[in-house]
């Protein structure tokens, strides 16, 4: 509802702010004006490398770019709008490319970006092969010393490291949502990126990239732990909650059976009640069922290794986990993950 000249003035101001923001960090967006085709794609990548220097820089650019987009839309009925279309298109190309990195990337695509590094530093094996013969690389086979040396030559260190950091963080959130005892992995992740968040020199970025890849390998092993234990991911989470240190092998085996049977019975009976979390009576029924099951000499925890205090603690842990993860038997974190 503002006068046209006022809207155009705000648009000019928003464009000037984001342009200055990039220029102060070493990138002149006017360079994009002269680029076409593949050269333009490469120039967008150069802009992203500047923007991905830190999480703060990226977030600030995205905020400033969205402000330009909003002001541009407000001026669409103005005859003078075409004067600013180049600025809009350039910022939009960079912004959309950043979002595409976030939405479509995966660990394998990041590795495959480093074709030269993969050839020199990675002993590869085909884990899965799609119709177009894309390879998935086994990160545990990476020679990290060779990787570090080759990564020094890569022109997109900031972008690649930032994208990998985002992917690891998203993967961690999903893993912790399925198993609350994985919070130690998040602490380790925070330690890895602590220096990266404060220091942005070349050596730090290279070290962070290598550390993140090593960390991905640890996450791979953690996600395969259920297979090693002979359990699925869902039952493993319950088993981890019930376990305590220094159990004998036969007690651990019994605990696996306890976790599986408890989960099966909960899903077959108590968790079939619609909106069970919404009512005190149904919540109490679920907790009582867990309590009685774990106390039972036939179905419950090994009496020789679990005190009454231990059992009560495990009852609360299991109930809180079930409450967070299970809307009902058919709708839960594990179905969503699958």
Features:
3 domains; mainly alpha; 338 residues; 69% helix
Question: Please, could you describe this protein's structure?
Answer:
- The chain folds into three domains: 4-103, no CATH class; 107-223, no CATH class; 230-337.
- It is mainly alpha-helical and 338 residues long.
- It is 69% helix and 0% strand.
- The model is unreliable at 123-133 (pLDDT under 50).
- It starts with a helix and ends with a helix.
- Mean pLDDT reading: 85
Overall SS class? mainly alpha
Number of helices: 16
Number of domains: 3
Spans of at least 5 consecutive residues with low confidence = 123-133
Terminal Cα span = 48 Å
- The radius of gyration computed from the alpha-carbon positions, rounded to a whole number of angstroms, is 26 Å
Helical residue percent? 55-70%
The SSE string, one letter per element, is HHHHHHHHHHHHHHHH
Main beta-sheet annotation: none
Number of strands: 0
Q: In percent terms, what proportion of residues is strand?
A: under 5%
Give the overall silhouette. Answer: elongated
